From TrEMBL:
It comes from Paraburkholderia ultramafica. Keywords: Cell membrane, Electron transport, Heme, Iron, Membrane, Metal-binding, Transmembrane, Transmembrane helix, Transport. The keyword Ribosomal protein does not apply. Residues 7-177 form the Cytochrome b561 bacterial/Ni-hydrogenase domain. GO terms for biological process: respiratory electron transport chain. The chain crosses the membrane at residues 14-35, 47-65, 91-115, 143-165. This is Cytochrome b561. Belongs to the cytochrome b561 family. It is found in: Cell membrane. Pfam families: Ni_hydr_CYTB (PF01292). It comes from the Bacteria. The gene is yceJ_5. One of its GO terms (molecular function) is electron transfer activity.
Amino acid sequence: MTPTRTHFSPLARLLHWMMAPLIVAMLFVGVAMVATVSRAHNTLIAIHKPLGIALLLLVVLRVGVRITRGSPPLPDDMATPQRIAAKASHLVLYALMVAMPLIGWAMLSAAGYPITLYGPLHLPPIVPHNVELFALLRALHTWFALVLFATVLLHLAAALFHGLIRRDGVFSSMGRGGR
């Protein structure tokens, strides 16, 4: 009989802890970007674009790891509504982590802006130049960023609930060690 896994795979944990601070940084850089018109604006954009694409690549890898290596089971004594909320919130997180950079890329494409990653390295546009589409995508990018921020806060609150109150191993499953 195979013992029950108590931890995510080492690669899943590495990707989680690499991406978590990058996503939080992206949210704050995004807020700072739209809140400033100073010279820092261009610097923030120069950080935001390649970091968004890097996060897109990391989340694609992370989804593959999650599909192939799975995740430890939730505690048996967890109520059904909590199980549903846990699974739904993870689906929302993954969907937003994929959608946000794609919407940003499409938004810049619709505006006719180059998507510069570094120096001469540019991404091709993924939608045609269209001012109305740009406006729609910009609003969508903003709203999804707010939803992502709220979902990250809920994720953090749930992690702390499991780690400090329930002490059921869910919090430590993304920590060091284990199988």
